[in-house]
Structure formats: C-alpha cells, structure tokens
Design a protein that fits this description.
The protein is built from 2 helices and 8 strands, in the order H-E-E-E-E-E-E-E-E-H. The protein is of the alpha+beta class. The strands form 2 sheets. The protein has a 4-stranded antiparallel β-sheet, with no helix packed on it. The protein has a 4-stranded mixed β-sheet with strand order 2-8-7-4, with no helix packed on it. A hairpin with a 6-residue loop joins strand 7 and strand 8. The chain is rod-shaped.
Length: 167
C-alpha cells in the first residue's frame, strides 16, 4: 500500500513540476508624472517558465479607465508575450489601478499587476498664466490711460488760459 501511495505522490509531483508557469518582468508599472492627454499605453512582459503551453484566458482591469490588450495564442515554454495596458490620461490626478491576469498556471491561475502614476493638470497652469497676464495687462492699460486723460486735462487748462488771456 505504501508503494502505491508513494507512486501516486511521485506521479502527481512530476505532473505538477511539468506544468505551465507564468512569470512577469515586473508586477508594477510606475508612469511617474505624465501630461494630460499623453499616450497612456505601457507593456508588461509575460514569460512561460514551465514546459507546457501557457494560456492567458482573461485580463481584467479594476475600472473602465484602464484597457488591456493581449494575445489569445498560447505562450510556448520558454517564450514571452506582452500585455498592453492603456490608462486614460484624460483623467487628471494620481492613480493606482490593478489588473487581474487569469491563466492556466495551476499554482497561480490569478496574478495581479498594478499601474500607478500622476496625470498633471496642465490647464490649471495655463489658467494661472492667463490670469497673471490679465493682471499684468490691467495696470499697463491703466498706465496708458492716465497720460491720455492728463493730456486732455492739460489741453482744457491751456484753452481756458488762452480764453482768460484773450479777455
């Protein structure tokens, strides 16, 4: 009986050891600071470190602002493929999102990838610059208006003086 159990255990261990195994070049991609509207696509490299074909059945983002793309073709042993992840950089501010990767790896059928970063709000900087320009332009316009009105006052005074002198 012990020999049968040992034989079954060894068969199971060999079958498990000769399975497809998923691994990633990195599990977190940090975008850093990106400009609003810039390209939000990044790539994760997936490698099959096992000896059977690896199949990625689904790549599921945590929200609609993240869009994954991947090949449905099996990844052969020792080969790599890429998962393309796109983040909507029209959404300004910090972000931290997860992407679930489902495969036929018996030990790790669900893997989690993360993307994080900050989309800079450049329009706020432009608005401040525009406001500053308006503030700078107002005193300049006022400065130009003062000499014109001073000239009118001076002209009126000169005319009044001539009129008084003529009397």
């Amino acid at each position: 009986m012990k020999k049968i159990l040992a034989g079954l255990f060894m068969t199971g261990a060999i079958a498990f050891a000769s399975a497809q195994t998923i691994s990633f070049d990195k599990t977190t991609f940090d975008y850093g600071n990106v400009k609003a509207g810039s390209d939000g696509h990044r790539f994760f490299t997936v490698k099959n470190t096992g000896d059977k074909p690896l199949i990625i059945s689904e790549v599921k983002p945590s929200c609609g602002c993240t869009t994954p793309e991947w090949s449905k073709d099996p990844i052969l042993p020792g080969k790599s493929a890429q998962i393309k992840v796109g983040y909507n950089t029209g959404i300004k501010g910090a972000f931290n999102k997860l992407i679930e990767v489902y495969s036929n790896d018996p030990a790790n059928n669900r893997s989690v990838l993360y993307i994080k970063g900050n989309v800079e709000d450049l329009s706020a900087g432009t608005a401040v610059t525009t406001a500053e320009a308006k503030l700078t332009a107002a005193p300049v316009a006022e400065a130009k208006a003062i000499p014109a009105s001073a000239k009118r006052v001076a002209k009126k005074a000169a005319v009044a003086q001539k009129a008084e002198a003529a009397k």
